[in-house]
């Protein structure tokens, strides 16, 4: 009995199948990947750290292939160690490639269990090579992957753009009731290093080519009720005949979507804090109401503008489809949601309340 | 006279003298090396006085006794260190217990020091040891039972509180002690082999200690203490795994502090067993779980190591074991030097020589420290030993191997018992009231929360 137990115990590990050792020493950790090209002719750029005498240098390599996986295997021809993308921080995809079918490029990443699904995904404008190698080392240092990761994190924190990790991207790509939106990077003309350009809208599995500016992205974040840590905007208000620029910070908000047939009324109650208001005191009730009214008008206008863009591109980045699918089956079953969304009559209405004025009132 | 001398093989320190006690001729025999001569002289004078006064039962007193002459009894008494008066005419013998005891003072044992609390330790004399206990536990249900091994002078004593200890456990231990065949014992370790449930298990099934306060609170919990005649080490049983993690410090320090450190110690148990294997697994199989920020540093330090992480770990663990073993054997001041040389100099040199990575040195050092956190030295050794199979499993199968190893470890712990009491109680079988006591040091003033060890175990045994 005892012998049998011992035998069984020793056999258990062997039952698990193939457990190949993958020594960390022999792996080349890749933290940034750039994909460009189209189906059948894909180019992948890899950026990885190289260690020479306590110095870390970031090298790049690129490979061509029929598909992502093909190119990925091709790269091993010219690197000394095995390329390992399980530590991937940022996945960059050129706008053109995303215009096709984004999932084509991502399938391999989801299929391998070792891969990280928390990497950031962003689209890029222009030449991919410029993003991978940074000559302007003074500006951002040589660690491009790290720079881009933090750039995306910051833009998410300040609600300048949306930020989805690889896992969420997959969910949204396949979701019928909400469309994906991804940040877009460009090489800044003045700075010469990667900067946030805006937010790309998707329809189905491919990018539409329409890009929201950062201020439009903020409105999207409010409407989606998915703001980052901070959301700040500056608006012009008129007080006692004088015009001021007022910066407000979003504190809290409630949405109330009213869907009747193909009439949608989106009303938002938004609480804000005053960040900057050079006029000085605001405490009088009348004045606050006046300012609130003006702000509400501005933001309502912004929202309607955003809705127009979204409906034009047929991309439901707000997630109205969730609500419709759950509670308004008749509307949902009308046909393809993206088309239905474009044809809806959507009205937005924002109601701003100033909750805090900072320590000055 | 010669007959008696022959019985003791004419040993030079065996002395037979013809003396006259109260007008009666007698032989006084003793080992001159064992008795307190002054004490014998005083007893003899007292005896004479009593005989002259015609006291009834003149031969019996606290340190003397009279019985009929019996050769085997004579030999045993003299071997125990008594002086014996033989009255050949009346065929009586009088035993004078006057052992000269060489005894050190009850100092605190070096390997079981506490910060606060009593600083007493057991000595090599059973009577003194029980004296120390009785000073702490002034109650009549503190029972001592002696087991005289046949033909041998080694005596085994068990001490327990009759009101606290479960009778069936006492009976179990009694049975095991009675089954021990003839042998001389040098250490409690040998005795342990006879009374353990499973000798081949790496886990100790008795708690050994040299501290009277530790024995005291364990007796109060219903445990039984096993003393041998000539050793300061006491075996305490039945124990569970968590007993080894309790330190007398817990109850001399404050509630929150005591609880915190008790949890730190339990954490150290897992750390000490699993940390090196975890590192090996990550390095050989699962590098994807490393935080991205860490990869550059780790990569830089492991890329020039010429062999797999498991050899690196085994090498360093071996170093640590050597340093530890060496510093125990060497005299105190040199021992510390070895520890410093070993720890700092070799640790630093081994990294610059490219034989091991920085991370591995940290891991091994952390593990070693976590291992020493265990208040009980014998469990400490077990934990250090258990690391090695885990490291091999991690090197061959990664996390999966560690999982299998942990599984086997827990299956074993669940099967283990100490004096037929489950080893993992109160976690399994679960006893909520005592369960808290494993992780927290419960305030002492709440008597309902002080649970005797046998609350559950006793019921189960029936």
UniProtKB/TrEMBL annotation, chain A:
Locations listed in the record? Membrane
Q: Where is the Spore germination protein N-terminal domain?
A: 24-187
Report any one BP term from Gene Ontology.
Answer: spore germination
| Keywords, sorted A to Z | Germination, Lipoprotein, Membrane, Palmitate, Signal
Q: What is its main location?
A: membrane
Read off the Gene3D superfamilies from this record: Nutrient germinant receptor protein C, domain 3
Q: Does the record bear Lipoprotein in its keywords?
A: yes
Regions crossing the membrane: none
Q: Where is the Spore germination GerAC-like C-terminal domain?
A: 198-358
Q: Which GO terms describe its cellular component?
A: membrane
- Superkingdom of the source species: Bacteria
Topological type in the membrane: Lipid-anchor
Signal peptide positions are none
User: By its UniProt entry, which Pfam families does this protein fall under?
Assistant: Spore_GerAC, Spore_GerAC_N
Family under the similarity heading: Belongs to the GerABKC lipoprotein family.
The record's section on PANTHER family has: SPORE GERMINATION PROTEIN B3
Q: What is this protein called?
A: Germination protein, Ger(X)C family
Biological source species: Bhargavaea cecembensis DSE10
From TrEMBL, chain B:
Q: Which GO terms describe its biological process?
A: spore germination
Q: Which Pfam families match?
A: GerA (PF03323)
Q: Cellular component per GO?
A: membrane
Q: Which UniProt keywords apply?
A: Membrane, Transmembrane, Transmembrane helix
Transmembrane regions listed in the UniProt entry: 266-285, 335-355, 361-383, 390-414
Signal peptide location in the record?
A: none
Regarding protein family, the annotation reads: Belongs to the GerABKA family.
Q: Can you name this protein?
A: GerA spore germination protein
């Amino acid at each position: 009995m005892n012998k049998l137990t011992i035998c069984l115990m020793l056999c258990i590990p062997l039952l698990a199948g193939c457990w190949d050792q993958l020594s960390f020493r022999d792996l080349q950790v890749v933290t940034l990947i750039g994909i460009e090209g189209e189906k059948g002719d894909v180019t992948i750029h890899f950026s990885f750290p190289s260690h020479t005498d306590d110095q870390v240098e970031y090298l790049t390599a690129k490979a061509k292939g029929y598909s992502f996986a093909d190119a990925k295997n091709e790269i091993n021809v010219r690197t000394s160690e095995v390329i390992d993308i399980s530590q991937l921080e940022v996945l960059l995809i050129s706008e053109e490639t995303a215009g096709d079918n984004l999932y084509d490029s991502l399938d391999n990443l989801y299929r391998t269990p070792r891969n990280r699904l928390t990497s950031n995904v962003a689209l890029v404008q222009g030449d991919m090579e410029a993003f991978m190698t940074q000559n302007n080392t003074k500006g951002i240092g040589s660690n491009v992957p790290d720079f881009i990761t933090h750039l995306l994190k910051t833009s998410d924190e300040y609600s300048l753009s949306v930020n989805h990790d690889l896992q969420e991207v997959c969910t949204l790509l396949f979701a019928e009731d909400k469309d994906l939106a991804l940040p877009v990077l460009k090489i800044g003309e003045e700075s010469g290093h990667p900067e946030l350009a805006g937010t790309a809208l998707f329809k189905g599995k491919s990018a539409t080519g329409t890009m929201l500016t950062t201020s439009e992205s903020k409105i999207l974040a409010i409407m989606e009720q998915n703001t980052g840590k901070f959301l700040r905007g500056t608006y012009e208000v008129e007080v006692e005949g004088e015009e001021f620029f007022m910066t407000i910070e979003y504190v809290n908000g409630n949405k109330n979507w009213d869907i009747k047939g193909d009439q949608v009324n989106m009303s938002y109650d938004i609480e804000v804090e005053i960040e900057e208001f050079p006029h000085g005191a605001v405490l009088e009730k009348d004045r606050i109401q006046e300012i609130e009214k003006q702000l509400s008008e501005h933001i309502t206008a912004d929202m309607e503008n955003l809705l127009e863009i979204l409906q034009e591109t047929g991309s439901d980045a707000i997630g109205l489809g969730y609500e419709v699918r759950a509670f308004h089956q008749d509307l949902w079953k009308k046909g393809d949601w993206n088309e239905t969304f474009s044809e809806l009559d959507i009205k937005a209405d924002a109601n701003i309340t100033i909750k805090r004025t900072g320590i000055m009132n | 006279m010669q007959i008696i001398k022959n019985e003791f093989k004419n040993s030079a320190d065996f002395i037979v003298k013809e003396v006259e006690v109260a007008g009666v001729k007698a032989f006084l025999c003793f080992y001159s090396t064992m008795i307190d001569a002054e004490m014998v002289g005083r007893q003899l004078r007292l005896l004479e006085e009593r005989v002259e006064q015609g006291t009834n039962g003149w031969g019996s007193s606290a340190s003397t006794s009279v019985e009929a002459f019996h050769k085997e009894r004579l030999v045993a008494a003299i071997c125990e260190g008594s002086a014996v008066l033989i009255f050949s005419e009346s065929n009586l013998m009088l035993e004078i217990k006057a052992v000269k005891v060489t005894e050190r003072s009850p100092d605190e044992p070096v390997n079981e020091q506490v910060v606060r609390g009593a600083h007493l330790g057991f000595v090599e004399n059973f009577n003194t040891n029980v004296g120390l206990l009785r000073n702490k536990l002034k109650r009549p249900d503190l029972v001592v039972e002696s087991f005289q091994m046949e033909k041998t002078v080694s005596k085994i004593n068990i001490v327990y509180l009759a009101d606290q200890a479960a009778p069936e456990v006492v009976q179990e231990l009694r049975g095991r002690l009675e089954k021990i065949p003839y042998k001389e014992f040098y250490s409690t370790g040998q005795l342990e082999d006879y009374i353990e449930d499973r000798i081949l298990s790496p886990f100790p099934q008795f708690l050994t200690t040299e501290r009277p306060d530790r024995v005291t609170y364990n007796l109060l919990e219903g445990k039984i203490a096993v003393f041998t005649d000539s050793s300061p080490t006491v075996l305490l049983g039945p124990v569970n795994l968590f007993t080894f993690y309790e330190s007398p410090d817990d109850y001399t320090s404050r509630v929150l502090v005591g609880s915190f450190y008790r949890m730190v110690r339990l954490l150290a148990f897992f750390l000490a067993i699993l940390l090196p294997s975890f590192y090996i697994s990550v390095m050989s199989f699962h590098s994807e779980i490393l935080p991205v920020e860490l990869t550059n540093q780790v990569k830089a330090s492991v890329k020039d190591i010429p062999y797999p992480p498991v050899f690196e770990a085994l090498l360093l663990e071996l170093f640590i074991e050597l340093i530890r073993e060496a510093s125990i054997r060497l005299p105190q001041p040199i021992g510390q030097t070895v520890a410093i040389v070993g720890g700092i100099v070799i640790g630093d040199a081994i990294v610059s020589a490219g034989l091991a990575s920085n991370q591995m040195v940290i891991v091994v050092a952390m593990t070693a420290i976590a291992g020493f956190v265990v208040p009980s030295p014998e469990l400490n050794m077990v934990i250090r030993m258990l690391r090695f199979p885990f490291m091999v499993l991690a090197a061959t199968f990664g996390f999966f191997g560690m999982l299998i190893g942990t599984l086997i470890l827990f299956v074993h712990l669940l099967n283990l018992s100490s004096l037929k009491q489950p080893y993992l109680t109160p976690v399994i079988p679960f006893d909520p009231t005592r369960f808290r006591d494993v992780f927290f040091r419960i305030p002492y003033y709440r008597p309902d929360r002080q649970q005797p060890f046998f609350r559950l175990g006793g019921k189960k045994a029936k």
